[in-house]
Design a protein that fits this description.
There is one protein chain. With about 270 residues, the protein is mostly helical. It has eleven helices and no strands. The radius of gyration is 26 Å and the shape is elongated.
Length: about 270
Amino acid sequence: MNKLPDSSTIIGVGGGFAVLIFGFILEGGSVPALFSVSSLVIIIGGTAAACITSFDLKTVMTIPKYLGESMKQANGPSQEIIIEIISFAEKARREGLLVLEDEVEKLEDPFEQKGIKMMVDGVDPEIVRHTLEKDIEIFEERKKREAEVFMAAGGYSPTMGIIGTVMGLVLVLGNLGGNAAELGHSIAAAFIATLYGICFANVFWMPVGMKLKGKLKAEIQRLEMIMVGILSIQAGDNPSLLKERLAAYLEPDDLKELQKSEVNNG
């Protein structure tokens, strides 16, 4: 599994907030004017409460873990997996499926390990297919939930910002008749909540949610590629034909690397 960091999440989120603050400064604004503890409490607390209502406490408490997942490279199809599956196919074609029994325990991917073990144990191909497809479906539903939490938070955050602004304006209107300068400052402070809500939604919550959705697509493709490989080995397909089928899952750059490695090894 690919655990390499994906710096695009940090660059995107950090850069987004930095650009907005820089633009505010260019317009003559003061950075301290952007900070409001009460607004943060309303936005973060209100969004968290809405998410707990929509999902559950355990799911919301694991948001930091999901955020960490978005900072890792997508574990998608790779030439390494193709090379491994093709080597299995060639061994099985020469010596039979039982030769792969020793390879099962060496596999790090639980999905691949499960599929190869079922194949070696002589499980019916249709049962293997059905089992692996069901595993992919369950995996997809679980991972979708991670992205849905961030997308939902991105929807609640601006609304919480509006609520915070309305609350601030209620206080302002209740104190009309005072110093005009102080009144203007209070109105500006009230709108900070809306600013926070919109910024968090569009710079953090929804972009991270979209990142998780993109990673999920890549991970599903990897699982499907492994399943195709396992079923093809079980069916006794030609390794060269299998390689062509699996190569279709690769991105153009990865496909070029695979072809280059074949040329060098040839």
